[in-house]
Amino acid sequence: MNVLVIGSGAREHALCRSLSLDPAVTALHCAPGNAGIAEVAELHPVDALDGAAVAALATELGAELVVVGPEAPLVAGVADAVRGAGIPVFGPSGEAAQLEGSKAFAKDVMAAAGVPTARSYVCTTAEEAAEALDAFGAPYVVKDDGLAAGKGVVVTSDVGVAKAHAAACERVVIEEYLDGPEVSLFAVTDGVTVLPLQPAQDFKRALDGDEGPNTGGMGAYSPLPWAEPKLVEEVLETVLQPTVDELRRRGTPFSGLLYAGLAITSRGVRVIEFNARFGDPETQVVLARLKTPLGGVLKAAATGVLADLEPLRWSDDAAVTVVVASHNYPATPRTGDPITGLDEVAAQDAPHAYVLHAGTRRDGGSVVSAGGRVLSITATGEDLAQARDRAYAAVGRIRLDGSQHRTDIAAKAAAGA
Question: Which of 154, 161, 232, 321 has its CA 20 to 30 A from that of 182?
Fold first, then answer.
């Protein structure tokens, strides 16, 4: 099978790495890719937001499956253009991707499907925002209605900060604060059948102890030893399947990856948000544990035969990923700094630990930083403690001037807390 992956982040590197290990994948391409993806896939220049250009590239390459990684191309309708060219694509239509593209749309779908979520108000004026903030009280949760690369959400006890964020957005969703630990659960779907993957937990705040500003994610781990055994089954029945059924009922079937960000509250499971694609950095740890070849799973979803797939097989190992970010991330990250130590990780830590590239590029013979989140160091082990030790040992070999990373990824879970 000839596969083309669209995107250039650590999520796409993780997808390409898994696809490269699938015996059924005979050719692997990525556009535009990054310095790390180039080691496992042939790179091609393309504007990932240009559906016609992506469809033309897929046709030229003879791709038998296109995997659209990031949310912006999905919301822009890139998957529609590829489907229009007669090529199977893993990723929802632009209309269905509004489940991530508009939080107000997602709330409407959840209400119609009876999916448990936080009470909320959609606000377009400062007066509406002030009233909503007053109604819920602190801590305040203010979400940009549109895409914001994982940085459109502010959770604060400072009403001034909350109002300022609302004022900076055209439309916001202001909702009640949900207590309890958060869980990420991915599901592969063809629009009818929903196949949940293994749950993970990510760390959104920039600093140790969940301090600092929200980011796109600073690390993740899987499995969740503290989670109820029936959690996945419960979320499938109360969240994932009803959402997919509602979108199909509306005439906008959702085919691809449905991500549910969940809060396990004192009142039960509540949906924080939906994403229309694999989440980063949770993808890194979930795929590290998947034993079933990935290509066949994605192709089955893209061609509507997911019900015929055998049950997924999972490793009993644990996985931990730690993000190495640029100086000053998530504000205005510094780029262009040389990255060294990558060869050391490959030589000393493989196969239990490896580096996935996010914001990197080639500069002559060197790899340099080219974004906020630069690398994702992923490791597996017999348990979370071993996976965590291996991940941080590999992080210690990476040298990037001014870089930052959290030191407490999976620490509490590994300690049984």
Answer: 161
CA-to-CA separations, 374 to 4, 36, 49, 368, in angstroms, rounded: 23, 11, 22, 9
Strands 65-68 and 2-7, by their bridges, are parallel
CA torsion sign for 149, 375, 394, 278 is positive
With tokens 């070849």, the residue in question is 293
State how far the Cα of 184 lies from the Cα of 286, in Å rounded to an integer: 10
**Whether the Cβ atoms of residue 95 and residue 148 lie closer than 8 Å to each other:** no
Strand extents, DSSP E, 87-210: 89-90, 120-123, 140-144, 153-156, 172-175, 182-189, 194-196, 201-202, 205-207
Rounded distance between C-alpha atoms, residue 399 and residue 352, angstroms: 20
Would you state the pLDDT for residue 328? Answer: 93
- On average, the pLDDT of the chain sits at 94
Q: What stretch of H or E contains 42?
A: strand 42-43
Please list, in sequence order, all residues whose beta carbon lies within 8 angstroms of the beta carbon of residue 388, skipping any fewer than 6 positions away: 221, 320, 379, 381, 409, 410, 411, 414
Residue 228, sorted as left (phi over 0), alpha (psi -120 to 50) or beta, turns out to be beta
Q: How far apart are CA 409 and CA 412, in angstroms?
A: 8
Determine the pLDDT at residue 87: 98
